[in-house]
Amino acid sequence: MRDTDAQPIGGIARRLTGILKARGIDPSTPVSDENEPSPALEAAQARIPARYQDAVADHPVVAAWVREVAAAGRRGPQGSPGIAQGRSLLIVGTTGTGKTHQAYGAVRSLLAAGVRLRWKATTAADLYAELRPRQGSDGERELHDLARCPLLIIDDLGAAKASEWTEEITTRLIDRRYTEMLPTLVTTNLGMADLRAHIGDRVASRLTEMTDKVILDGPDRRRLIAAERRRLAAV
Questions:
Q1: What is the pTM of this model?
Q2: Which residue range is the domain that position 167 belongs to?
Q3: Which end of the chain has a smaller Cβ tally under 10 Å, C or N?
Q4: What are the AAA+ ATPase domain coordinates in residue numbering (predicted)?
Protein backbone atom coordinates (compact mmCIF):
# COMPACT_ATOMS: atom_id res chain seq x y z
CA MET A 1 0.00 0.00 0.00
CA ARG A 2 1.37 3.42 -0.94
CA ASP A 3 0.28 6.54 0.88
CA THR A 4 2.39 9.65 0.60
CA ASP A 5 -0.01 12.15 2.16
CA ALA A 6 -0.55 10.48 5.52
CA GLN A 7 -0.32 12.68 8.61
CA PRO A 8 2.22 11.39 11.15
CA ILE A 9 0.58 9.47 13.97
CA GLY A 10 2.49 11.47 16.56
CA GLY A 11 1.03 14.73 15.25
CA ILE A 12 -2.54 13.47 15.43
CA ALA A 13 -2.03 12.06 18.92
CA ARG A 14 -0.47 15.33 20.14
CA ARG A 15 -3.41 17.34 18.79
CA LEU A 16 -5.94 15.10 20.50
CA THR A 17 -3.89 15.10 23.71
CA GLY A 18 -3.93 18.90 23.70
CA ILE A 19 -7.72 18.95 23.29
CA LEU A 20 -8.20 16.53 26.17
CA LYS A 21 -5.84 18.38 28.50
CA ALA A 22 -7.62 21.67 27.74
CA ARG A 23 -10.81 19.98 29.00
CA GLY A 24 -9.09 18.79 32.17
CA ILE A 25 -8.89 15.17 31.08
CA ASP A 26 -5.77 13.09 31.61
CA PRO A 27 -5.09 11.34 28.27
CA SER A 28 -3.21 8.55 30.04
CA THR A 29 -6.27 7.58 32.10
CA PRO A 30 -7.87 4.33 30.86
CA VAL A 31 -11.13 4.82 28.99
CA SER A 32 -12.98 2.44 31.28
CA ASP A 33 -12.57 0.27 34.34
CA GLU A 34 -12.42 -3.34 33.18
CA ASN A 35 -13.55 -4.44 36.66
CA GLU A 36 -16.92 -2.72 36.28
CA PRO A 37 -18.81 -4.23 33.32
CA SER A 38 -20.96 -1.77 31.41
CA PRO A 39 -24.61 -2.83 30.95
CA ALA A 40 -24.63 -1.02 27.59
CA LEU A 41 -21.55 -2.97 26.46
CA GLU A 42 -23.03 -6.26 27.63
CA ALA A 43 -26.24 -5.51 25.72
CA ALA A 44 -24.29 -4.56 22.57
CA GLN A 45 -22.19 -7.72 22.51
CA ALA A 46 -24.96 -9.56 20.66
CA ARG A 47 -24.62 -7.07 17.79
CA ILE A 48 -20.85 -7.29 17.60
CA PRO A 49 -19.53 -10.11 15.38
CA ALA A 50 -18.18 -13.02 17.42
CA ARG A 51 -14.64 -12.50 16.18
CA TYR A 52 -14.57 -8.93 17.53
CA GLN A 53 -16.42 -9.32 20.84
CA ASP A 54 -13.14 -8.92 22.73
CA ALA A 55 -11.71 -6.22 20.44
CA VAL A 56 -9.68 -3.51 22.13
CA ALA A 57 -8.93 -0.05 20.71
CA ASP A 58 -5.24 -0.17 21.62
CA HIS A 59 -3.85 1.99 18.81
CA PRO A 60 -2.89 5.36 20.38
CA VAL A 61 -4.76 7.47 17.83
CA VAL A 62 -7.91 5.34 18.06
CA ALA A 63 -7.76 5.38 21.88
CA ALA A 64 -7.31 9.17 21.86
CA TRP A 65 -10.29 9.53 19.51
CA VAL A 66 -12.43 7.46 21.90
CA ARG A 67 -11.52 9.76 24.78
CA GLU A 68 -12.26 12.86 22.72
CA VAL A 69 -15.68 11.58 21.63
CA ALA A 70 -16.57 10.45 25.16
CA ALA A 71 -15.52 13.82 26.61
CA ALA A 72 -17.55 15.80 24.07
CA GLY A 73 -20.79 13.85 24.59
CA ARG A 74 -23.92 15.72 25.66
CA ARG A 75 -25.23 14.73 29.10
CA GLY A 76 -28.61 13.01 29.11
CA PRO A 77 -31.34 12.79 31.76
CA GLN A 78 -29.46 10.06 33.62
CA GLY A 79 -26.19 11.98 33.50
CA SER A 80 -24.43 9.67 31.03
CA PRO A 81 -22.98 11.35 27.93
CA GLY A 82 -24.45 10.80 24.49
CA ILE A 83 -22.34 10.89 21.36
CA ALA A 84 -22.10 14.34 19.78
CA GLN A 85 -20.62 15.86 16.66
CA GLY A 86 -16.94 15.13 16.21
CA ARG A 87 -14.06 13.97 14.09
CA SER A 88 -14.05 10.71 12.17
CA LEU A 89 -11.32 8.12 11.62
CA LEU A 90 -9.97 6.66 8.38
CA ILE A 91 -8.20 3.42 9.31
CA VAL A 92 -5.88 2.39 6.49
CA GLY A 93 -3.85 -0.80 6.19
CA THR A 94 -3.18 -3.87 4.11
CA THR A 95 -5.12 -7.10 4.65
CA GLY A 96 -4.88 -8.59 8.14
CA THR A 97 -3.39 -5.59 9.97
CA GLY A 98 -6.33 -5.18 12.39
CA LYS A 99 -8.45 -2.39 10.90
CA THR A 100 -11.84 -3.92 11.73
CA HIS A 101 -10.51 -4.96 15.15
CA GLN A 102 -9.69 -1.34 15.95
CA ALA A 103 -13.08 -0.09 14.71
CA TYR A 104 -15.09 -2.48 16.87
CA GLY A 105 -12.66 -1.88 19.72
CA ALA A 106 -13.52 1.81 19.53
CA VAL A 107 -17.25 1.06 19.78
CA ARG A 108 -16.68 -1.26 22.75
CA SER A 109 -14.53 1.36 24.50
CA LEU A 110 -17.20 4.05 24.09
CA LEU A 111 -19.88 1.75 25.48
CA ALA A 112 -17.64 0.66 28.34
CA ALA A 113 -17.07 4.34 29.17
CA GLY A 114 -20.80 4.78 29.66
CA VAL A 115 -21.50 6.70 26.46
CA ARG A 116 -25.13 6.47 25.29
CA LEU A 117 -24.60 5.28 21.77
CA ARG A 118 -26.71 4.36 18.76
CA TRP A 119 -24.41 2.82 16.19
CA LYS A 120 -24.46 0.75 13.05
CA ALA A 121 -21.79 -1.22 11.21
CA THR A 122 -21.70 -2.41 7.60
CA THR A 123 -19.19 -3.40 4.98
CA ALA A 124 -19.16 -1.40 1.76
CA ALA A 125 -20.29 -4.48 -0.18
CA ASP A 126 -23.23 -5.11 2.21
CA LEU A 127 -24.13 -1.42 2.11
CA TYR A 128 -24.58 -1.44 -1.66
CA ALA A 129 -26.38 -4.78 -1.60
CA GLU A 130 -28.84 -3.52 1.03
CA LEU A 131 -29.53 -0.24 -0.78
CA ARG A 132 -29.80 -1.65 -4.30
CA PRO A 133 -33.34 -1.07 -5.61
CA ARG A 134 -35.54 -4.16 -5.34
CA GLN A 135 -39.19 -4.94 -4.71
CA GLY A 136 -40.30 -4.63 -1.11
CA SER A 137 -37.23 -2.65 0.00
CA ASP A 138 -37.05 1.05 0.85
CA GLY A 139 -33.44 1.88 0.04
CA GLU A 140 -33.98 5.61 0.49
CA ARG A 141 -35.22 5.14 4.04
CA GLU A 142 -32.28 2.89 4.88
CA LEU A 143 -29.81 5.38 3.39
CA HIS A 144 -31.44 8.18 5.40
CA ASP A 145 -31.11 6.14 8.60
CA LEU A 146 -27.44 5.36 7.94
CA ALA A 147 -26.74 9.00 7.13
CA ARG A 148 -28.22 10.17 10.44
CA CYS A 149 -26.89 7.41 12.72
CA PRO A 150 -24.76 8.96 15.52
CA LEU A 151 -21.87 6.55 14.86
CA LEU A 152 -21.36 4.51 11.70
CA ILE A 153 -18.70 1.94 10.79
CA ILE A 154 -18.08 1.49 7.05
CA ASP A 155 -15.72 -1.45 6.69
CA ASP A 156 -13.62 -2.17 3.58
CA LEU A 157 -14.47 0.98 1.64
CA GLY A 158 -13.14 0.55 -1.89
CA ALA A 159 -13.34 -3.26 -1.84
CA ALA A 160 -16.69 -3.53 -3.65
CA LYS A 161 -16.99 -3.21 -7.42
CA ALA A 162 -17.35 0.44 -8.39
CA SER A 163 -20.01 1.92 -10.64
CA GLU A 164 -21.73 5.25 -11.14
CA TRP A 165 -24.50 4.05 -8.83
CA THR A 166 -22.14 3.02 -5.98
CA GLU A 167 -20.27 6.32 -6.31
CA GLU A 168 -23.54 8.23 -6.05
CA ILE A 169 -24.63 6.27 -2.96
CA THR A 170 -21.25 6.74 -1.28
CA THR A 171 -21.26 10.45 -2.09
CA ARG A 172 -24.74 10.98 -0.63
CA LEU A 173 -23.93 9.03 2.53
CA ILE A 174 -20.56 10.62 3.22
CA ASP A 175 -21.75 14.10 2.25
CA ARG A 176 -24.59 13.97 4.80
CA ARG A 177 -22.30 12.75 7.57
CA TYR A 178 -19.67 15.32 6.59
CA THR A 179 -22.23 18.15 6.69
CA GLU A 180 -23.66 17.06 10.05
CA MET A 181 -20.16 16.32 11.44
CA LEU A 182 -21.22 12.84 12.59
CA PRO A 183 -18.39 10.52 13.71
CA THR A 184 -17.70 7.80 11.16
CA LEU A 185 -15.18 4.96 11.31
CA VAL A 186 -14.01 4.03 7.82
CA THR A 187 -11.60 1.19 7.09
CA THR A 188 -9.91 0.58 3.76
CA ASN A 189 -7.08 -1.41 2.17
CA LEU A 190 -6.39 1.43 -0.26
CA GLY A 191 -4.07 4.41 0.00
CA MET A 192 -5.72 7.77 -0.62
CA ALA A 193 -4.67 7.97 -4.28
CA ASP A 194 -6.19 4.55 -5.05
CA LEU A 195 -9.23 5.26 -2.89
CA ARG A 196 -9.85 8.53 -4.74
CA ALA A 197 -9.78 6.68 -8.06
CA HIS A 198 -12.27 4.13 -6.72
CA ILE A 199 -14.84 6.33 -4.94
CA GLY A 200 -14.36 9.67 -6.72
CA ASP A 201 -12.83 13.04 -5.87
CA ARG A 202 -15.87 14.41 -4.01
CA VAL A 203 -15.98 11.60 -1.46
CA ALA A 204 -12.20 11.48 -1.10
CA SER A 205 -12.06 15.24 -0.49
CA ARG A 206 -14.65 15.06 2.28
CA LEU A 207 -12.93 12.09 3.90
CA THR A 208 -9.63 13.94 3.86
CA GLU A 209 -11.14 16.85 5.78
CA MET A 210 -13.45 15.00 8.18
CA THR A 211 -11.11 12.20 9.30
CA ASP A 212 -7.91 11.66 11.19
CA LYS A 213 -5.90 8.98 9.44
CA VAL A 214 -4.68 5.87 11.23
CA ILE A 215 -2.17 3.78 9.32
CA LEU A 216 -1.73 0.15 10.35
CA ASP A 217 1.24 -1.74 8.98
CA GLY A 218 2.99 -5.01 9.59
CA PRO A 219 2.38 -8.57 8.41
CA ASP A 220 -1.01 -10.20 7.85
CA ARG A 221 -1.98 -11.33 11.35
CA ARG A 222 -4.35 -13.96 10.00
CA ARG A 223 -1.51 -15.66 8.11
CA LEU A 224 0.71 -15.50 11.21
CA ILE A 225 -2.00 -17.13 13.35
CA ALA A 226 -2.55 -19.84 10.73
CA ALA A 227 1.20 -20.49 10.52
CA GLU A 228 1.45 -20.77 14.31
CA ARG A 229 -1.44 -23.26 14.39
CA ARG A 230 0.30 -25.39 11.74
CA ARG A 231 3.53 -25.24 13.72
CA LEU A 232 1.83 -26.32 16.94
CA ALA A 233 -0.02 -29.11 15.14
CA ALA A 234 3.26 -30.42 13.79
CA VAL A 235 4.95 -30.50 17.21
A1: 0.78
A2: 9-234
A3: C
A4: 85-221
